[in-house]
Amino acid sequence: MMLIKLLIQHLWRNKVDTEKYKSIALSMDTYVKLRELSDKQFEMPQSMAKTASYYIVQAHKNFTEQTKNGKATRQKA
User: Fold this and answer.
1) What is the pLDDT at residue 13?
2) What is the DSSP code string of 39-70?
3) What per-residue string of b and e applies to 16-54 under the rule 16 or more CB within 10 Å gives b?
4) Which in 2, 6, 8, 55 has the greatest CB count within 10 A?
5) pTM score
6) Cβ proximity of 35 and 48 under 8 Å
7) What is the DSSP letter of 74?
């Protein structure tokens, strides 16, 4: 069993590009909302990562467009 664990760890370290992917923690409320979006918002269910990426890219696009137009303001959390 230990040998399998070591082999998986070795393969994981050598295969995952840590410069390309990062993890974040979400509150349970946010996680549930993201799960619902992943399952129901698109024609086909999407992964949580793809759904989060889609909405972040859209938000960033809107932000940069507003910044160019001088309309960007900080939103209160």
Assistant:
1) 64
2) HHTSSS---HHHHHHHHHHHHHHHHHHHHHTT
3) eeeeeeeeeeeeeeeeeebeebbeeeeeeebeeeebbee
4) 55
5) 0.64
6) yes
7) P
Q: Among candidates 29, 22, 76, 32, which has minimal Cα distance to 53?
A: 22
Measured at the CA of 47, the angle between CA 43 and CA 51, to 5 degrees, comes to 75
**Residue 19: both structure tokens together:** 């410069």
pLDDT, tens digit, 9 for 90 and up, residues 53-74: 999 999 999 999 988 887 766 6
Distance between CA atoms of residues 58 and 46, nearest Å: 16
* CA dist., res. 46 & res. 37, Å (int): 9
